């Protein structure tokens, strides 16, 4: 099982899981048993990359993206296809996908660094552009409050870029660590998960095992929420404008980095593997959920 989403109907709640080969399994959350199973008609050698839901209540559909560039929308009640779209093969295998909160568009990222925005109303591609790093796209996420913007993380760079899908231009860059990485460092570096809380507040996680909160309006209040003890409270955040792009860079505080960590050493609550996903749970006590490649899930108040 590679991915899972929740489908909330009027009378019940189900979780749908999908394997990379396209096998769907609907599980009743209350009954904890498989309610239905089916197989997507995908090409031999094609694998599922990501999935999401469209609609609410009994009208929810499942959207699946595959490595060969197909976007498949499935009616979960009948199992029939609602639509099927195909990304340009020359843009490379699809590696990431996101949908906007109003379900007007889907954005795909590829292994060749290309991003394409699809209009869900007319089932047409609106714009395609290539990331300035031309590196594989690890994650795409809608920017809350900015309907035409997406946040993008790519392999080999400790950076989140905010891109305007109407112009294909980068507007903001959130980055940390050294700007020049060795070849071995680039092979593992990258931001794998991005969660936008507001137009100015963004949570990121990646290969450095840190949960970072970025405040684009008041950059000095940005911080590492969870990570190695030597990083907590020991970074400074500076804002600049480079070639019309607003850049916020997290740097080591030289004075604090040489000071001793006082007090007894407590077990670290931080992740020990690459952080791969976030969810923000709205309840009487809102909390942030993070998961990593080691299978660990952490809930933060």
Main attributes?
single chain, about 300 residues, mainly beta, 6-stranded mixed beta sheet, 4-stranded antiparallel beta sheet, 2 helices, globular
Describe the protein's architecture and organization.
The chain has about 300 residues and is mainly beta. It has helices at about 185, 255, and strands at about 5-10, 15-20, 25-30, 35-40, 50-55, 60-65, 70-75, 80-85, 95-100, 105-110, 115-120, 125-130, 135-140, 150-155, 160-165, 170-175, 190-195, 200-205, 210-215, 225, 235-240, 245-250, 275-280, 285-290, 295-300. A 6-stranded mixed β-sheet has the order 13-14-15-16-22-21. The protein has a 4-stranded antiparallel β-sheet with strand order 1-2-3-4, with no helix packed on it. The chain has a 4-stranded antiparallel β-sheet with strand order 5-6-7-8, with no helix packed on it. The protein is globular. Residues about 5-20 and about 25-35 have low confidence and may be disordered.
């Amino acid at each position: 099982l590679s991915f899972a989403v929740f489908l909330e109907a009027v009378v019940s709640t189900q979780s749908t899981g999908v394997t990379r080969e396209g096998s769907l399994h609907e599980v009743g959350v209350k009954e904890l048993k498989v309610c239905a199973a089916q197989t997507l008609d995908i090409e031999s050698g094609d694998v599922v990359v990501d999935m999401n839901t469209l609609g609410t209540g009994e009208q929810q559909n499942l959207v699946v993206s595959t490595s060969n560039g197909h976007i498949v929308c499935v009616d979960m009640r009948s199992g029939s296809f609602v639509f099927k779209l195909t990304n340009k093969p020359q843009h490379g295998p699809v590696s990431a996908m996101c949908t906007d909160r109003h379900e007007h568009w889907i954005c795909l990222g590829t292994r060749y660094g290309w991003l394409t925005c699809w209009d869900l109303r007319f089932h047409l591609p609106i714009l395609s552009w290539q990331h300035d790093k031309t590196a594989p796209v690890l994650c795409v996420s809608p920017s809350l409050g900015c309907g035409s913007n997406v946040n993008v993380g790519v392999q080999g760079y400790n950076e989140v870029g905010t891109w305007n899908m109407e112009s294909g231009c980068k507007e903001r860059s959130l980055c940390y660590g050294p700007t020049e990485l060795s070849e071995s460092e680039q092979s593992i570096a990258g931001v794998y998960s991005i969660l936008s809380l507001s137009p100015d507040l963004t949570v990121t996680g990646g290969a450095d095992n840190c949960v970072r909160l970025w405040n684009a309006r008041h950059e000095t209040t940005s911080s590492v929420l969870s990570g190695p003890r030597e990083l907590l409270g020991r970074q400074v955040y500076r804002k600049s404008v480079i070639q019309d792009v607003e850049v916020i860079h997290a740097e080591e505080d030289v004075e604090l980095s040489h000071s001793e960590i006082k007090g007894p050493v407590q077990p670290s609550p931080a992740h020990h593997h690459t952080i791969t996903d976030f969810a923000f749970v709205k309840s009487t006590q809102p909390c942030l959920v993070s998961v990593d490649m080691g299978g660990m899930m952490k809930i933060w108040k």
